């Protein structure tokens, strides 16, 4: 019987997670791959089990509430899967903050960046402490990847990840799945929300922009309707 192995991709969010999930992980044959990790997650004996869930890093919408949630989640993961191998991405702090802000603007409210930055707990960008916590919990069975490396050399990064998992590199398409809002789109939403201050109107505007941009969220809805 083959050895049971568990690999968990914990994010960070805004580091190419959807690309990896759609273009790489789900195309690896012969493994148990799941995109959600919770108490119902099933490990198949004798197989490679790969779980990918960017919300394990605390989630992109918890920046205001609990910047230390990622540490508690990691500790719980180590209790559930003590022998797991971890894949974690990091990113330049400034570019990560801007990308997270743009996602917040589209999904929640059009705060100007200065207001957004004032509201968040700055410890959320202490990626080194979080990675050190993972390395301590999982006995250094942690693969650290930089998002900038994925942009510059995607083939090399994907090969590095697949070698870590112990699987052949699948045929994948190097494409951006979730494109960030343009500066013009962000500026329009911020201006719109400043005038109307309405969550309902913001939701309608967000859906319209997602539709125009052919956002994957809209694509999922279309596929379900079909």
Q: What top-tier CATH class of the largest domain fits best?
A: Alpha Beta
For the sheet with most strands, the description reads: 5 strands, parallel
Total domain count: 2
Beta content: 5-15%
Helix content: 40-55%
Radius of gyration: 19 Å
- Secondary structure tally, helices: 10
Structural descriptors:
226 residues; alpha/beta; Rossmann fold; 2 domains; 5-stranded parallel beta sheet; 10 helices; 5 strands; 48% helix; 11% strand; globular; disordered C terminus
Kindly describe this structure.
- The protein is of the alpha/beta class and 226 residues long.
- The protein has 2 domains: 5-176, P-loop containing nucleotide triphosphate hydrolases (Rossmann fold); 181-226, no CATH class.
- It is built from 10 helices and 5 strands; from the N terminus they run βαββαβαααβααααα.
- It has helices at residues 17-24, 69-80, 93-107, 113-119, 127-137, 147-152, 154-165, 183-196, 199-212, 216-225, and strands at 5-9, 32-34, 48-52, 85-90, 142-146.
- The radius of gyration is 19 Å and the shape is globular.
- Residues 221-226 have low confidence and may be disordered.
